[in-house]
Amino acid sequence: MFTKMKNIDTAFRYVRGFTMLVIAGCIIISCYAVYKSFQTVSLMQDKVYILANGKALEAYASERKDNIPVEAKDHVKTFHKFFFTLDPDDKVIKTNITKALYLADDSAKRIYDDLKENNFYSGIISGNVSQTIQIDSVSIDIREYPYRFRCYAQQSIIRTTSIMKRSLLTEGALRNVSRSDNNPHGFLIERFNTIENKDISAETRK
Questions:
Q1: Which run of H or of E encompasses 22?
Q2: Which of 59, 65, 77, 181 could pair with 48 in a Cys bridge, judged by C-beta atoms 3.0 to 4.6 Å apart?
Q3: Which residue windows are transmembrane per the record (predicted)?
Q4: 56 vs 157, which has greater pLDDT?
Q5: What is the spatial distance between Cα 152 and Cα 185, in angstroms, rounded to a whole number?
Q6: pLDDT of 15-39, one tens digit each?
């Protein structure tokens, strides 16, 4: 009788131990599954799919600090292309300058006003002159904020009878602002200044 009771008690302990082990295993597996689910959702939120030419392209989100040099350089290039690309058309000039001035502060506006007062843009239109710019390189110093930059470029001034090549070296600083449709990079150029702008070569058009 006592032997049977002892065997029942031992069996109960084994069953209880096994049950506790199964429960602990289930809890561990459930916690791991929840953790992996959150991890997967987090990774999926960092992915963006862009539709381009009928194809879905996968892009990854990243912290702004990882992209500062790339975005800053593109911001500077975009500003220069708008500000220095001119055609003998008043609407084209106003459109480009307006886009450029969204990307910079009043230091760029003052340069524009000075050029306008000196009839620079009127001369572009009356002389049927086109001006294009080619960006050679942009250097950004992100060690201190606002970020200092220098832009090295070449201008081509195309007249009816000639093409003039000019070197262009500018500098300024970048500070953070809110992103918008007019300023997608979220930077604003400050203390914009032209260091050098001199003739390199000239050729006669045939």
A1: helix 2-45
A2: 59
A3: 12-35
A4: 157
A5: 20
A6: 777 788 878 888 888 888 777 776 6
Give 142's DSSP letter: -
CA atoms of 14 and 43, how far apart (whole Å): 43
Give the separation between CA 13 and CA 10, rounded to whole angstroms. 5
- pTM above the 0.90 mark? no
pLDDT tens digits, 188-201:
999 999 999 999 99
pLDDT of residue 79: 97
Output the 3-class SS for 76-139: HHHHHHHHHCECCCHHHHHHHHHHHHCCECHHHHHHHHHHHHCCHHHHHHHCCCEEEEEEEEEE
* Rounded (10°) angle between helices 106-117 and 64-84: 10
**Which residue, among 179, 147, 169, has the nearest Cα to 72 in the 3D structure?**
147
Separation of first and last alpha carbons in the chain: 121
135, 81 Cβ separation under 8 angstroms? yes
H or E element that contains 188: strand 187-204
Q: Which two tokens stand for residue 130?
A: 């086109």
Residue 192 structure tokens: 């914009």
